[in-house]
Amino acid sequence: MTAGRRYVVGITDHMIGTPDLEADVLGDDVEIDFFASTDEASFDPDRLRKLDALMVWGARLGPGSIAHLARCKGVVRYGVGYEKIDLAALKVAGIPFANNPDYGTEEVADHALAMILSLHRRLFEHDARARAYTSGWQVHSLKPLSRSNRATVGVVGVGRIGTAVVNRLKPFGYRILAYDPGQPPGHEKAIGYERTDQLGDLFAQSDIVTLHCPANAQTRGLLNAESLARLKPGTIIVNTARGELMEDLDALEAALRSGQLAAAAIDTLVKEPPGDHPLLTAWRDRDEWLAGRLVITPHNAFYSDHAAIEMRRNAAKTVRILLDEGRLRNQVTDGS
Which residues does the annotation mark as catalytic? Predict the structure, then answer.
C-alpha cells in the first residue's frame, strides 16, 4: 500500500475513462487499484486479497474471485442490476453487497415516456413510411390512433423509476394502472394511479405496458408467449428495465408479426450487443413489415452527462461510508 494510505479500493472496470472522480470522493487515504477489465479471469488473486472494498461496473463476479477477497468489507455495483454478481457466494464469504439505485431516475423515466409517446403517436412508423410516399400526404395518416386520454398505460413496478413514470404520464391524461405487490396498501393513493393486484388484469386492460421491475425469480421471462397472448390486440410494450423480463425474442417476433403487439421499444436485451435472430435481422434491415414498430436503444436509458457523474459519485460515497462507519447503504440481501 502507498505510504499514507489506509485503504485499498478495487475498481474492476469503467465505461467512462479513468476513475479520477471516484478518487476525489474516496479521499487521500484510499489507494485505488484499477483492474481496467471486464474479464473476471484476468483479476489477479494477490490484488484481490489486498482490497478493503470492491467496485464493479460491467464485470462478472463469481466464486473464483470472491474466494480471494480476504479483507473485503463490501462489494458495490455502479448500476442497479446485479445479475452478474454471485450473491450466494458473497453471502458464504460474509461480504455484503450493495447496488446503486439512486441515480438516473429522471433519465430512465424520460426515456420510457419518450418511447411511450412516440409509439402511441406512431411517430417512428410515420417517419419510416413517409419516405416512400409519392402522392398525397396527410391522407396517409396511420390508423388506429387514439387520444392519450382514451388509452390505458399499465406500469409494472412502481418503485423510484416507475413512480417517476407515473408522474410524467399524468399530464397527458392517460388512465394509469399499476402492479407492484411490493408496495404497501395506499401507495396508489399517495402517488395517483389505479392499483391492480393481478398482473393478468393489467395485461388485459392496458393499451401500453411499460416495465419497471427488477429481474428476479418471479419476473424473469415475464413476457413470454403465454403472457403476450393475454395482452389486448394492438398493445405497445416498453422495456427500459431488465432484458431478462423479455427473454423470448421468438415470442416477441410472433406477437409483432400477428399484430398482437402494435409495437415494442426495448432498451435492455439479454445479450448485449445483440446477436443474430430473425427479429433483429428484420430490425437491422428495416423490413417493411416492421417499419417503425420496433425501437431498440443500446442500454443507455440511464445516461445523461449528469447521471454519469451522479452514478460514479453515489457509488464512491457508498464505499466511503462503508470505510468510515462500517455501514453499507443500499445493501441487497435478496439473492433471488
Answer: 242, 272, 299
Alpha-carbon gap, residue 4 to 97, rounded angstroms: 27
CATH 3.40.50.720 residue spans of the chain: 7-103+305-325, 105-296
CATH class name, domain 7-103+305-325: alpha beta
- How far apart (Å, rounded) are the C-alpha atoms in residues 156 and 334? 20
| Mean pLDDT score, 113-142 | 94
- Total-model pTM: 0.88
Dist. CA 285–CA 293, nearest whole Å: 13
Grid cell, residue 326, equals: 462500517
Report in angstroms the alpha-carbon separations of 75 from 51, 52, 82, 162: 10, 9, 11, 26
Nearest to 21, CA basis, from 83, 89, 78, 69: 78
pLDDT at 2: 62
Write out pLDDT tens, residues 92-117: 999 999 999 888 899 999 999 999 99
pLDDT at 311 over 90: yes
**Tally of CA atoms within 13 A in the half-sphere of 280 that contains its CB:** 14
Whether 32 contacts 9, CB under 8 Å? yes
**How remote is the C-alpha of 11 from its chain's centroid?**
22
